[in-house]
Amino acid sequence: MFRTTAVATFLTKRWQKAVISTVLLILLAATGLVLWAGSQIASPSRRPLLDYHREFLSNPAAHGFIIERFTASDGTPCLVCTPDPSGTLGERGTKIRQQLTARGLALKPAGRILGTLVLVHGRKGRKEDYLPIAERLCASGFRCVIPDMPAHGDHPATIATYGVREAGLPARVLYETAKHFTFDPQPAGLLGMSMGGSVSVHAVDLPDAPWKALAVISSFDSFPKVIEGQASRYIGTTLGPIWAGGTDLVYHWKSGIHLADIQPAKHAASIRIPTLIAHGANDRVAAIDRGKFLYDSLPATTPKKWIEIPAAGHDNALITAYPIYADIAEWMLRNVAEK
Questions:
Q1: What domains does the chain contain, in order, with CATH numbers?
Q2: Cα gap 98→92, rounded to integer Å
């Protein structure tokens, strides 16, 4: 009897130790995941140059534009893409001009510059990612200025705040490149995707902002809602908000601001310029509701357009069969170039 009891006690203790060890491992893993997530939101892993980036940079004439480099006074690296004055077009430029003509737009000759667009990339992006976009918009009649955002690409800063501290960056690079390359900074439009959309909405709400029109792709109304949505999708609606709260603590430790400080909808409520907002129907990073809430935050009197991109997720919103580039170019032509 004594031996049986001793064995049972021994097994119970081993079981308890196993449970405690398992719980500790789960807590350790959860803590590690929270630390990783908060750090990645503040300082995403920087992507290197890819082969297609190098092809654009080495042979811009094949794409119908000239590429020049510029570094702003705050250290922001930029690419300035200017339509080839000879009117030469690349494949993408030829296609978008055909699409725009089919829509009834009377285009100026290729190579003519009608205004300047600043293009703001998304999280984990870099300025070179937008060279295919610039090819299309240059063919439509715009000069394109593409900066690296803080904590991305070659930017020397290490923390991203999704517009809270970057709001003045788009106008700064517009004015400084205009002075350096001797062109008129007006008229100008702003385009941002995902994180870049949040930055752009913040930028447009600044006093004396120079923008005539805005286009926002795959962005959001509230960053905490995006984080909670992602967390809940992976670990459930009960634990998701807890994980998101831990992520916020890490992000605040890294950046000095809270995720709750990143609320593009509050800035959208003050926007008066024509604003196009497009979102992928199948976006699993920032659900389409987030984009629709951002759109609904715009004043009723603001000229605005909502586009749901069929069958598009988050990262492929610009590369489906839907002609989103023609929508963007037409919006800018009608609201920037014609002003």
A1: 43-222+262-337 (3.40.50.1820)
A2: 10
